[in-house]
Specification:
Keywords: DNA-binding, Nucleus, Transcription, Transcription regulation. The chain contains 5 helices and no strands. The chain is mainly alpha-helical.
Length: 167
């Protein structure tokens, strides 16, 4: 991903950052008490960052375990970005195609006709409407039979009015 020169520069930069952190920790121990208090307050404020390294100095108390520092990630080139975009778009289209194939398998009216996406969606909506109407008819018939037998029909029907929601 990176050229050899870029990798060397990155490693040198990371070494410099680590050395600066070590220098800052050692300078904290030799500071006068007033500036030490300021730095202690700064430490308290910055303690909840997920990228802070574990401290091993005795004045900080026990070492806490937390999220580890993320390794530096490499930037993608334009061709890699384009390839990733193409792959994700192909995956999205394949998932849509699978969904349409599943609808074709489920909806009986789609067995023997030309299957454009709009036709698949329209026939699926019609099929769902028919299923809801059949279910409501069966529930109404069950209520009628219960009342004929002298039983109290169930009034708790959460599916009533489903036909109005589908347009």
């Amino acid at each position: 991903m990176f050229s050899k020169l870029e990798q060397d520069k990155l490693q040198a930069f990371l070494r410099d950052v680590e050395n600066d952190e070590k220098t800052n920790y050692s300078s904290l121990e030799s500071e006068p008490s007033s500036s030490k208090k300021r730095n202690d307050n700064n430490k308290k404020r910055n303690n909840n960052t997920p990228y802070k390294r574990k401290s091993t100095t005795p004045e900080d108390g026990p070492v806490r375990s937390g999220r580890a520092r993320k390794p530096p990630h490499e930037l993608l080139s334009d061709t890699q970005k384009k390839a990733n975009h193409i792959a994700s778009e192909q995956k999205r289209r394949a998932n849509i195609r699978i969904g349409f194939d599943q609808l074709v398998d489920i909806v009986p009216a789609l067995d023997s006709c030309h299957r454009s996406e709009s036709l698949i969606l329209q026939k699926s909506v019609d099929y769902i409407r028919d299923l809801i109407q059949d279910k409501n008819n069966l529930k109404q018939r069950a209520r009628e039979l219960q009342s004929t037998l002298g039983e109290v029909p169930d009034d708790d029907d959460s599916s009533e009015g489903e036909m109005e929601n589908i347009s």
